[in-house]
Specification:
Strand order of the largest sheet: 8-12-13-20-19-18-17-16
Strand content: 15-25%
Largest sheet: 8 strands, mixed
CATH topology of the largest domain: BirA Bifunctional Protein, domain 2
Helix content: 25-40%
Distance between the termini: 24 Å
CATH architecture of the largest domain: 2-Layer Sandwich
CATH superfamily of the largest domain: Bira Bifunctional Protein, Domain 2
Number of strands: 23
Length: about 575
Amino acid sequence: MHQIFFNSKDLSMTTISLSEQEIIRRNSLQKLRELGIDPYPAAEYPVNAYSEDIKAGFSDGQDHFGEVCLAGRLMSQRIMGKASFAELQDAKGRIQLYINRDEICPGEDKTLYNEVFKKLLDIGDTIGVKGTVFKTHMGEISIQVKELTLLSKSLHPLPIVKEKDGVTYDAFTDPEQRYRQRYVDLIVNPQVKDVFVKRTKIVNTMREMFNERGYFEVETPILQPIPGGAAARPFITHHNALDIPLYLRIANELYLKRLIVGGFDGVYEFAKDFRNEGMDRTHNPEFTVMEIYVAYKDYQWMMKFTEEICERVALALHGTTKVQLGDQIIDYKTPYPRVTMYEAIKTHTGYDIAGKSEQELREICDKLGIETDPTMGKGKLIDEIFGEKCEHHYIQPTFIIDYPVEMSPLTKKHRDNPELTERFELMVNGKELANAYSELNDPIDQRERFEEQLRLSEKGDDEAMFIDQDFLRALEYGMPPTSGMGMGIDRLTMFMTNSPSIQDVLFFPQMKPEQKPVELSEDGKMVLEILKSKSPVELNELKEKSGLSNKKWDKTIKDLTKNNVARVVKSEEGLFVESVG
RNA sequence: CUCUCCGUAGCUCAGCUGGUAGAGCAGUUGACUCUUAAUCAACGGGCCGAGAGUUCGAAUCUCUCCGGGGAGACCA
């Protein structure tokens, strides 16, 4: 859909599809050039102030700002003859400008005010102003503009959003446009920016915390020959020079553990992972996970660390551990309850599944109305019961611990019960936020677990893990006892910013490609063919030759003239159609 | 993948049981030197998502397709 703009036919189509307002702006651009004003100047603009700082720092009667110079986008104009008000939006907020004709045009030539400001500037243009700070009669802190510079002309009109007394009018809300044109969303919807500021603050807070403890931020391969560390369908690509398939990573776990083998005590990565699965309110094909591995720790230690992270992030963002989420208040104050999976199931179903056989579990599922199929083993059945009957109950942060061994091929067996593993998931608002283990470092056990996965895969489980021989070799060299944890950054951001959809916390959520501009219809092409042999041609003659019905003829000829490939000319001899170009 | 709602001017939306499109903002022209959703006057602006069908006639009814939202299924 990009190359379409490079062939001449479509180029002409994009030109004629300009709206009236876009044409006017292009004309203004031309007029500015004729006045000797470069609409896209190159020189540095010496900004020395921001809107919000000025508004926060201004006090009546004294001007301690002196001359300020700020730049931003022109968001509104209120023109009143020889003086005007306007609003400038910079990186921090908005401030009102007062523009007086004789202040910005001290000499005889009033062109800058009368022509440039009043006529040739538009909402959306980036401008720079120099002036002084003052307060209007109505009490609004404003800039008295002495010098006005166009820094960048805007050719595409912005949606106009107005606001009074906290009520927003004509808000730009269409989700499709907001996500496809996030830049517009960010310009006109200030609360959107806030979500992304918070997102970055979450990452910075975590990074700060890890660095304080001496953990080491690393980067590991995104293109992997074996997609490991999780159960998911990968994206596949091809490396030409090596002529091998490569996969976009679904997790980075196995690489981070290799680094623990290599002697780092603590490593972490904020990683983009990719999964070739469905998209919905909580899933995007690429998403961000923070994974951290710390040597000589176990999952008990990691629980404490994880709850500390959450508490600290909540405090950094909101100054309190209580965070609004939908109609709930989530309290991230530590410590969080630890509930074993067996306890959770007993609480919410009444069944004690400890020591139950596969057959017995299947019967319990039947009684609970949970569908099962014969390929499901013990672990899968237990996981199903938990997912259906328990998960959604855990609104406040809760650690669900001790998962069945079948579900956790990379996790160390529980020190007290070989059917279980030392694994926890942190549940918030009924959803998984983090997942952690005492990492399996027994290479023989690990190999057996991989082989079990291989058997599952042969049984038809398409998300069973591949065997990564090099990872096993690394474990054979010896990995210290380690605990690792992964936390979904998108999900955490959703929780911390009260965003109901993952699209609200991603700048550019995945969307289907936009539709191509419409091409000429078959009828249009056919009529054009006739025109090629004879042009101009009498209208009725052409209509007859085309053999089209009245309705189709009407539509087709309108199509051709709209697209500027044909033209109807009226002369004394009658109506003629001629081709253009 | 299923169900459901939506797609009309640059933006937000109205347009009912079919009769050929309306408002506010934005734009253009004019007036106005402290306005703030500025105001006042005039004007211009529409492949009514695309295609097909029913009809004398479709923004409106039917079907198909495209795009989006929501709910679910699948999936961590």
